[in-house]
Write a structure and sequence with these properties.
mainly alpha; flat
Length: 104
């Protein structure tokens, strides 16, 4: 039962993220207001963070070691913060001034 839930969550998040990319590509080459592209970009970032959460959940279930779990959590938090950094000016400035690439 637990693996079925893992697989289902993974499939839902992956398909949602891919769908958002396709919608973004279609709208990027058609005349739409800028706010529509921005809304899709924000929604895509939320889906990316959900994808990181699903991967983190699966990684945490993979091991019983607290050291590895802490490492996985730190990695996931770093990836999520770099994904949302473009929407928070202070965080974006910190990332760019320290040469940390943003995930967009």
């Amino acid at each position: 039962m637990r693996k079925k839930l893992d697989w289902t969550l993974s499939v839902i998040v992956l398909v949602a993220y891919a769908t958002l990319w396709v919608v973004y590509w279609i709208m990027a080459y058609n005349p739409v207001p800028d706010w529509v592209l921005k809304a899709i970009e924000i929604t895509r970032t939320v889906a990316l963070c959900l994808m990181y959460c699903v991967v983190l959940y699966n990684a945490l279930c993979w091991t019983d070691s607290w050291v590895l779990r802490i490492i996985f959590i730190a990695l996931a938090l770093f990836l999520m913060s770099s994904a949302i950094a473009g929407y928070v000016p202070a965080v974006e400035k910190f990332f760019t001034s320290n040469g940390i690439p943003l995930m967009r």
